[in-house]
Amino acid sequence: MKMNEQQRRELEHVARCGQPAYIRRKALVLLNLGEGRSITEVAGIFRVSRPSVYQWRRRYREEGIDGLRVRPGRGRKPTANLEELERYVRQSPRTFGVARTRWTLATLAEVVPSVKGFSTYGVQKALARAGIGYKRGQPRLHSPDPDYEVKKGLWRKR
Fold first, then answer.
1. What are the respective helix, strand and coil percentages of the chain, to the nearest 5?
2. DSSP string, 20-37
3. Torsion-angle region of residue 73: left (phi > 0), alpha (psi -120 to 50) or beta?
4. Fewer CB in a 10 Å sphere around the end CB: N or C, the chain?
5. pLDDT tens sequence across 9-66
């Protein structure tokens, strides 16, 4: 792979300081190609597939350093319906035939259709994506006494 001095300096900088880390690895792969190593040799050194090296080289030629970034939309798409999950969580488990007063991750995985069969960690991640904090405290009822806050303050200060 032929590269000019500016490209070499740019890749050397990214190989040292690039964020995230996978960009540093791709820059090192491209630098090795620029030094005259073959694609097969470089793929073996960095333990990546040859098609990956071809793709990184092509994308670097077309887009520069930005071509080395992972594009959005990659990976497995989430299957949990976040609106449905929130609808269930905002109601009592007893509404859905579960003899409990609070949800657990395991009962959510059993009851909510879009997360059926998920591990407890998977349910927790789905809750986090929905912006729902797990084990958040329930509101407490306070005394109807109008002086309750003053009285509570007296025993808390000691």
1. 60, 0, 40
2. SHHHHHHHHHHHHHHTT-
3. left
4. C
5. 999 999 999 888 999 999 999 999 999 999 999 999 999 999 999 999 999 999 999 9
